[in-house]
Amino acid sequence: MKIGLLFGSFNPIHIGHLIIANYMANHTALDKVWLVVSPQNPLKKYGDLISTYDRLEMAKLATENASNISVSDVELRLPQPSYTIDTLTHLKEKYPEHDFALIMGSDNLVTLHKWKNYKLILRNYNIFVYPRPGYENAELASHPSVTITMTPLMELSATFIRKSIKEKKNVQYFVPDPVLKFIESKSLYR
């Protein structure tokens, strides 16, 4: 089975993430998509990151009715900081029957050369890239391991959602209803 891994902090998960995952699972060569909740991205600042377990729970709530999208907590059980190559190696050892691929935005493709063992990733894994505004011409876009997809362009960000919640603005339809209820029940991002 071909499984695409969409890594993210999902702080919070929103419809943009779900549209990307759904597109990849249904309009590419991938059979399933696993949303990999990352405790902390080594290339990002800690910032407004809420509990990993709250982010994991929101991702599970968002995907509970999805047939070919699921949530993985694999990075919660690996040494920190979590590097993509280490997670890929672990998953390949644990699930040798699966063929894993990466899903990333074109913004990440631009900075892929900064990732730990990025050449190994390019050599051993396929990368499915979705568009991000302002990142259309990545140097690695023509690499044989890279597939540029026609995923609908989403200009929705978790930063925007957190800011909106903090400002007491309505975020209905930006996040799935069960996620919104969870956020409200725990007074997250206030």
TrEMBL record:
Pathway field: Cofactor biosynthesis; NAD(+) biosynthesis; deamido-NAD(+) from nicotinate D-ribonucleotide: step 1/1
EC number: 2.7.7.18
Recorded GO MF terms: nicotinate-nucleotide adenylyltransferase activity
Pfam families, alphabetized: CTP_transf_like (PF01467)
Domain Cytidyltransferase-like: from-to ranges: 6-163
Signal peptide boundaries: none
Alphabetically ordered keywords of this record: ATP-binding, NAD, Nucleotide-binding, Nucleotidyltransferase, Pyridine nucleotide biosynthesis, Transferase
Keyword Transferase: yes
Catalyzed reactions per annotation: nicotinate beta-D-ribonucleotide + ATP + H(+) = deamido-NAD(+) + diphosphate
Function per UniProt: Catalyzes the reversible adenylation of nicotinate mononucleotide (NaMN) to nicotinic acid adenine dinucleotide (NaAD).
Family (UniProt): Belongs to the NadD family.
Protein name (Swiss-Prot/TrEMBL): Probable nicotinate-nucleotide adenylyltransferase
Upper lineage: Bacteria, Pseudomonadati, Bacteroidota, Sphingobacteriia, Sphingobacteriales
The encoding gene: nadD
